[in-house]
Give the backbone structure.
Amino acid sequence: MMQAITLEPFDRILSGYKKVEELAVPVEACSYLCEKYQLFGVQGYQLANFRSTGYLNRYLTCTFEHLPTLVYKKIYRIPLAFRRAEHSQLLFSDDYRFEGFLLLLEWYLNNQPDKIIMDKHRTDMKKGPIYLDSAFLNFRLSEILDGAGFPLSNFYSLEQFVEWNRIYRLINNKSIGRHSKVFDETSEENLSELRIILKIVSLKYGPVSFTV
């Protein structure tokens, strides 16, 4: 079971000349997260000062001061600040969610890193650590678990998912053209995204009845 962590107001965010208050993990809870998720690549934590854009504040440039971050696989940092929304607190209340968060993070790093690297031009580690868009990842996780988790847990075939996805577009390859597919069954990236989604859904609902 996950130790309950209550997010606290965090106002050390500056957007333009305006202070922004969101929610953050208390510093005293960071050691627990590091220990619990060490096998997933979490190696420590730091209080970070940085400037970037991300989903947290609608992609406006923000300056963060003394923000708790997790050190992930040496070069990455996971900011522990999130929007004031129910799914933000659930990330640290439901035992399975943060594991799903880290699984989703790893998939994006391997397949669509531009979507979660906050400084998208950054590739040189000599310039410092690379910050990941944890607020976007948590939003995407909520789409999977809270919006799609229950129907996916009851599907029994890939064909059933493809038909459902044509309407709800949980996976959208954004191909353009009259005969393009929302989900392309010949695309290894689409298939791998579905695999990780099913793995995350199974953390909450148990094994899904079809495989990819």
User: Anything to note?
Assistant: The chain has two domains: 8-134, 144-205. Residues 8-134 form one domain. The chain has a mean pLDDT of 92. The chain is about 35% helix and 20% strand.
